[in-house]
Amino acid sequence: MVKTKVHNLSKGVKGWVSKPSQPVLYDRQIVWLAFGLMLTGLVMVTSASFPISTRLTGAPFHFMVRHAIFLCLSLIAAFVVIQIPLARWMRHSVHLLLIAMFLLLIVLVAGHSVNGASRWIPLGLFNLQPAEVAKLSLFIFMSGYLVRKNDEVRDSFFGGFIKPLIVFVCLAFLLLLQPDLGTVVVMLVTLFAMLFIAGAKLTQFLSLLVAGIIAVAGLIISEPYRMRRMTSFWHPFADPFGNGYQLTQSLMAFGRGDWFGQGLGNSIQKLEYLPEAHTDFVFAVIGEELGFIGVVCVLLMIFALVYKALNIGRKALESGEIFGGFLAVSISIWFAFQTLVNVGAAAGIVPTKGLTLPLISYGGSSLIIMSVAVALLLRIDYECRVAALQRGDKPAKKMPSSKNNQQESDNHEEE
């Protein structure tokens, strides 16, 4: 009997290894990339937050436990979001945008202030950052707008191009009152990229791009603390114990990392030399502990996720899933640009902006919203695959819910 069980077990393992997996209606590579980034984030947040957690709470794993809770909430949120058809997101895109604006107003009235910035709404378990909600809400709204007004975007300057910019200006005004210039820049770059992909005229695009650059430059010049960030970014070692302190400590972390790093947990800069080591500058700790090889591996995972999102967007646009295509493209640009800004700030390439590293940095709002964005990518890919199967005359009885979702989307587009 024991021999029979061993034989059956070995046969099952052999079959699992040798036989190809069954076809599925979602991109498993995105799932594994997201899980890999989340696990990397949990390990690095644990390592980077150990000293400050001990000093602030007396419990060395305080931030690790909180980050693990955020991960669980993120997975629950992603599981719920992936069940919702894209047609419903498109139908309620305006409502989501209004909710985001309402949250931005609340944070100005009753927000929690940290380091002079009022960006969080206390919710007990964690502090909600409405700016993260505003990003995703704007991209969902813009995806729906580009579906409804695609011809106007191509032909009309005011009707198709200026109207979405008015919506952006309203959000930007509320964000700048916090203040949060970094989020405004991410939203502006992603919005311009979406309009360009939608077919806006090149002259209009370039003129507004120049206007946007001038506006951002004006916002930097108008605030002394932003100018100090710019000057410290240009010459951080000119004032290594003042305005350039954070950047010099971050560069020292990268310098100590060398090729293979000092080893996990052996960072010196995280011993409260480097401020925000577990949030905005967790990438510097990765560079110090895991070295150049670890940095490259993390960046490859993030940009593999970005590439997959772009590929999903391209396939969706080609198959006629216009809303899903624009949304997938916006998510890919959002993740890519925010990664470039975070990594660039840690490496001294761009000024510090206070943006998190996607799916890695400590922060409940950022982790949950970006997990929701990944779930939306999976939903877009799922609906594209279902539509492809239906076009191939596959039996509809195997996918009744997906067929209803597709009919609901078609009815909405006809409206």
Automatic annotation (TrEMBL):
Membrane topology type: Multi-pass membrane protein
Note down the stretches annotated as region Disordered. 392-415
Pathway annotation from the record = Cell wall biogenesis; peptidoglycan biosynthesis
Any transmembrane segments, and where? 30-52, 64-82, 94-114, 120-145, 157-175, 181-198, 205-222, 290-310, 322-347, 359-378
Answer whether the UniProt record assigns the keyword tRNA-binding to this protein.
Answer: no
Q: Which reaction does it catalyse?
A: [GlcNAc-(1->4)-Mur2Ac(oyl-L-Ala-gamma-D-Glu-L-Lys-D-Ala-D-Ala)](n)-di-trans,octa-cis-undecaprenyl diphosphate + beta-D-GlcNAc-(1->4)-Mur2Ac(oyl-L-Ala-gamma-D-Glu-L-Lys-D-Ala-D-Ala)-di-trans,octa-cis-undecaprenyl diphosphate = [GlcNAc-(1->4)-Mur2Ac(oyl-L-Ala-gamma-D-Glu-L-Lys-D-Ala-D-Ala)](n+1)-di-trans,octa-cis-undecaprenyl diphosphate + di-trans,octa-cis-undecaprenyl diphosphate + H(+)
- Where does this protein chiefly localize? membrane
Q: Name one GO biological process term.
A: regulation of cell shape
What are the UniProt keywords, alphabetically? Answer: Cell cycle, Cell division, Cell inner membrane, Cell membrane, Cell shape, Cell wall biogenesis/degradation, Glycosyltransferase, Membrane, Peptidoglycan synthesis, Transferase, Transmembrane, Transmembrane helix
| Gene Ontology MF terms | lipid-linked peptidoglycan transporter activity; peptidoglycan glycosyltransferase activity
From the Swiss-Prot or TrEMBL record, state where the protein is found.
Cell inner membrane; Cell membrane
The catalytic activity of this protein is classed by the Enzyme Commission as 2.4.99.28
Question: One Gene Ontology cellular component annotation?
Answer: cell division site
Q: By its UniProt entry, which PROSITE patterns does this protein fall under? A: FTSW_RODA_SPOVE (PS00428)
* InterPro entries associated with the record: Cell_cycle_FtsW-rel_CS, FtsW, FtsW/RodA
**One matching Pfam family, short form?**
FTSW_RODA_SPOVE
PANTHER family in UniProt? CELL CYCLE PROTEIN (PTHR30474), PEPTIDOGLYCAN GLYCOSYLTRANSFERASE FTSW-RELATED (PTHR30474:SF2)
Q: Which family does it belong to?
A: Belongs to the SEDS family. FtsW subfamily.
What does it do? Answer: Peptidoglycan polymerase that is essential for cell division.
**Alphabetical list of NCBIfam families matching this protein:** ftsW, PRK10774.1
What name has this protein been given in UniProt? Probable peptidoglycan glycosyltransferase FtsW
Species source reads: Vibrio algicola
